[in-house]
Amino acid sequence: MHDHDDLVPPVDPPDMHRVTDPDPQPAVENFPPPEAEVDANATSEWTLSPPEVPPLPVSEVAPMAPGTETWPAPGSMGDAAVVAAGAAVTGAQQMAILRAELVAWFKTLFSAAVYATLIVTFGFQIARVEGQSMAPTLADQDRLIVNKLAYRLGPPRRGDIVMLYYPRDPDKSFVKRVIAEEGDTVKIEDGRVFVNDVPMPDDYVLPEYRSHEDEPPRIIQPGYYFVMGDHRNNSSDSRTWGEVPKKYIVGRVQLRWWPIPHARLF
């Protein structure tokens, strides 16, 4: 006999039609199936297109003259940037021009100073008359230009108005007229000057400026000169302190430039 507890009611096989779908739809993303063949030359709903990226802007280059800087064409950068760049370059160029001009001016001034020094040392010198010993030819405070080259090229001559160092004190300078040269014989009779027994022309001496002294004849020694002032009765000259060595004669008075109304060449 069988124990009824051992009996198990029969179970029907599961109904596959109730629990399965013969044509299931996969719940997946819209990607092409693995076995799908993709035509590389065709566009389909399965082809992914990369996002469009705008091309980087390429700055145009404005044509410039050969040898100049290259600048972006208008519109390739902001107007403010263009103005700023132009201002910076203009400022740098202006500084360079200013430096060049300053250097040029410095060179000019330096050259002028050198030339002035050379001219004053070897060429010309400005002098001022003090006193009346050369009146009426020269007056007190007249400004003169003395030609220092004149006697480097030739010796002083009779009648020249010269600037000279005072033989008794070379720190002082006088302006006198050459009366006699080396080898000449000079004598004075009643204020009248004779050179080699010939009366010296002295129309520049005013009657009231004549002296009336007498000087015995003297022969001017080599390398020396006899000088006198045109204001004969008010001049310290070779009649008092002797002859002047040529090395003490600075130069020939070439021009009176002041006062301007009385400017003249000698």
Question: What is the highest CATH level, the class of the domain at 129-265?
Answer: Mainly Beta
User: What do we call the CATH homologous superfamily of the domain at 129-265?
Assistant: Umud Fragment, subunit A
Class of secondary structure makeup? alpha+beta
Overall form: elongated
- Biggest beta-sheet profile: 8 strands, antiparallel
Number of strands: 12
End-to-end gap: 179 Å
Contiguous uncertain segments of 5+ residues: 1-22, 26-32, 34-48, 58-62
Helix-strand pattern: HHEEHEEEEEEEHEEE
Counting H and I runs of at least 4 residues, what is the number of helices? 4
Any idea what the CATH architecture of the domain at 129-265 is?
Answer: Ribbon
CATH topology of the domain at 129-265, what is it called?
Umud Fragment, subunit A
Please state the average pLDDT score.
Answer: 78
Q: Report the β-strand fraction as a percent range.
A: 15-25%
Helix content: 10-25%
Computed over alpha carbons, the radius of gyration is 58 Å
Describe this structure as you would to a colleague.
With 266 residues, the protein is α+β, with helices and mostly antiparallel strands. Among the domains are: 78-124; 129-265, Umud Fragment, subunit A, CATH 2.10.109.10. It is 21% helix and 24% strand. The protein contains 4 helices and 12 strands, in the order ααββαβββββββαβββ. The protein has helices at 16-19, 79-123, 150-153, 238-241, and strands at 124-128, 143-147, 161-166, 169-180, 185-189, 192-195, 198-199, 215-219, 224-228, 244-245, 249-258, 264-265. Strands 1, 2, 3, 4, 9, 10, 11 and 12 form an 8-stranded antiparallel β-sheet that branches. It has a 4-stranded antiparallel β-sheet with strand order 7-6-5-8, with no helix packed on it. Strand 6 and strand 7 (198-199) form a beta hairpin. The chain is elongated and about 125 Å long.
